[in-house]
Amino acid sequence: MTMNTTIRKLPTNVLGKDYIVGDLHGCIDLLERLLDEVQFNPERDRLFSVGDLIDRGPDSLACLQLLTKPWCYAVQGNHESMLLNFFLPYLQNHYLDNLDDVNDTNFIWNGGDWVERYFMLDQHSMTLEFDQSLLLVADLPLMWIIGEGEQRFHVIHAELLKPEFNYTKTQVWLDSDIDQWLAQHIIPSETEEGIYWSRTLMSQSSKKRLPALQAGLSFTFCGHTYAPKPRQVLSHVCVDTGAYLTIKSRSNLNGRGYGLTLFDVKNECYISASYQQSDVLWCDFPLVRPTH
Question: What residues in the chain have per-residue pLDDT under 70?
């Protein structure tokens, strides 16, 4: 079940910079390193998250508490969706006997065991700070639209893939479709699953050469499908580079490029931080634009 299907819009940032962060998965300390490195200014700059702030990493609740910051804008990822589905009965009646997965969402199995530390058995409830964060998650949109014209970009979790993509000339939704969703204040239910879960474009891009650009679709920053570095496919710019994979207890990926990526939209570059390296990596990433 989806708690929130809204689509929201913000104007272009004329005062500072906009940054897009990949799937955090609890890796708040890596984000702090990156924000310090770029000298993030909360008075002028904005941070956009492609979702999956939680699970698998060291401090999921701290990542959710970013949602209290006026400079942070996030979308709901599939892990936030699983969290909300897991706690749906609790959201409705504010009572918990235990943390059994009664909704069978596989949330705990997918890294959600961190919530156990915030369960108060004697009070049959979660802690106040957890409750406050859960309500913030429930209010997250599925999509942000930022700016107008050539400065416009979108933020989603996975992909804007059409349900019937195998039978259409255009595989993805375009700005014209998105503008209709905005006017109606809702994203069609048949499209939601792809926005949460689809890996089709990013998976296909490694098997066959899909174009970097999709005519009629503004740059759409997304995550969900990790790789050692960002990539652009049909105007989707995927910035999930597997931050949680670099936790030493999980794997040994030293030198393979994985980490948490922060993308600078204005300067078309990104920086990446890893648990396995003390320094950060700076890389240019010129976006492929239409030729006029």
Answer: 1-5, 101-104, 166-167, 205-208, 249-256, 292
Mean pLDDT, rounded, of the chain? 91
Q: Where are the domains of the chain?
A: 7-284
Domain 7-284: what homologous superfamily?
Metallo-dependent phosphatases (3.60.21.10)
Is 79 considered catalytic here?
A: yes
Q: Tokens in use for 197?
A: 């879960």
The tens digit of pLDDT for each residue in 131-166 reads 999 999 999 999 999 999 999 999 999 999 998 776
> Which two structure tokens, joined as six digits, stand for 237?
């710019």
Contact indicator for 133, 126 with CB cutoff of 8 Å: no
Cα–Cα nearest to 129, from 111, 140, 117: 117
CB 173 within 8 A of CB 191: yes
Stretch (H or E) spanning 154:
strand 153-155
**Marked catalytic residue, from 25, 79, 154, 236:** 79
Tell me whether residue 155 is exposed, middle or buried, using C-beta atoms within 10 angstroms of its C-beta: 0 to 12, 13 to 18, 19 or more. Answer: buried
Work out whether strand 72-74 and strand 46-49 pair parallel, antiparallel, or are unpaired.
parallel
Residue with tokens 């929130």: 4
Find the length of the chain: 292
Q: Tell me the C-alpha distance between 151 and 160, whole Å.
A: 19
CA distance linking residue 84 with residue 47, whole number of Å: 23
Report helix, strand or coil for 261: strand
278: enclosing H helix or E strand = strand 277-284
